[in-house]
Design goal:
- Strands 3-2-1-4 form a four-stranded mixed sheet. The chain has a two-stranded antiparallel sheet with strand order 5-6. A two-stranded antiparallel ribbon has the order 7-8.
- It has helices spanning 33-37, 40-51, 91-113, 138-154, 167-179, 182-185, 199-225, 237-240; strands at 3-12, 15-20, 27-30, 60-69, 128-129, 132-133, 190-192, 195-197.
- It has two domains: 3-81, TTHA1013/TTHA0281-like (2-Layer Sandwich), CATH 3.30.2390.10; 85-240, Four Helix Bundle (Hemerythrin (Met), subunit A) (Up-down Bundle).
- The protein is built from eight helices and eight strands.
- 44% of the residues lie in helices and 17% in strands.
- By secondary structure, it is an alpha+beta fold.
Length: 241
């Protein structure tokens, strides 16, 4: 029997991003729906391998369960959709998200640590997006991923000011702050800067943000040093080779 991949579709005139509802942080994007849909099964297989779900046959059915038009710069890899599952008050799901957010940070660090020269620059990345200059070295990518901690927590009214210059330690501290905040634990809906947020969305965005930049970092690293020398904790090799 084919497994169902539920999709939340985010679109505008800049492109399409598809979020795999039951695989928090998993996504594909494209200039149009067909292009983004063509990447879904590969993303699902890589994601399931990453979280330790054994392969169970080749068949998937894709079901679009949510469709939203947003103002996000989808062409630059931005997103703002509140996925249907972000709204659920489900303690088990929040716990799953916290575990995945910490695993994702650890795996990003592991990928980074395998790179022989974190200062080596990819000159093809020299461009500016909605958030500023695109990180062009492994160190800049790591710093960029780490720097979103305060932003995501601020979306659920939690202040994060401590910085240990350590991605994993900072992520762990973020999770502790969420655990200590009753409103965050209640997955309350907030509306900040014209965007809806819940704790589940913020946690999903941690994973999504790690994943989008980890894949860029992996591509950059294997071009420079080859597949054999670079760790692949996110299982992106299934998509790239």
């Amino acid at each position: 029997m084919a497994r169902i991949i539920r999709i939340a579709l985010e679109e505008n005139d800049r492109g399409v991003m598809l979020h795999l509802v039951d695989m928090p942080g998993a996504f594909t994007r494209g200039k149009n729906l067909d292009e983004a849909l063509g990447k879904v099964v590969g993303e699902a297989r890589a994601y399931e391998t990453w979280v330790g779900i054994p392969e169970n046959g080749p068949d998937y059915d894709i079901e679009i369960v949510q469709r939203e038009t947003t103002n996000a710069r989808l062409d630059d890899g931005d997103t703002e959709i509140l996925v249907c599952k972000d709204k659920e008050l489900d303690a088990n799901y929040l716990q799953q998200l916290k575990m995945l957010a910490l695993k994702s940070a650890n795996d990003f660090q592991r990928l980074y640590d395998s790179i022989p020269d974190p200062e080596f620059r990819d000159n093809t990345k020299e461009r500016t997006t909605f958030y500023g200059k695109v990180p062009a070295s492994a160190r800049e990518m790591l710093q960029h991923v780490d720097q979103v901690n305060g932003y995501y927590l601020s979306r659920v009214n939690i202040r994060f000011s401590e910085s240990k210059d350590n991605l994993v330690a900072n992520r762990y501290q973020c999770l502790r702050l969420i655990e200590a905040d009753q409103q965050a634990k209640a997955n309350m809906l907030t509306f900040i800067d014209n965007e809806y947020w819940t704790t589940a969305k913020a946690l999903r965005r941690f994973i999504w943000h790690d994943r989008i930049h980890a894949r860029a970092l992996y591509r950059f690293a294997v071009r420079a040093w080859g597949y054999e020398d670079i760790d692949d904790p996110f299982c992106f090799g299934r998509l790239e080779r």
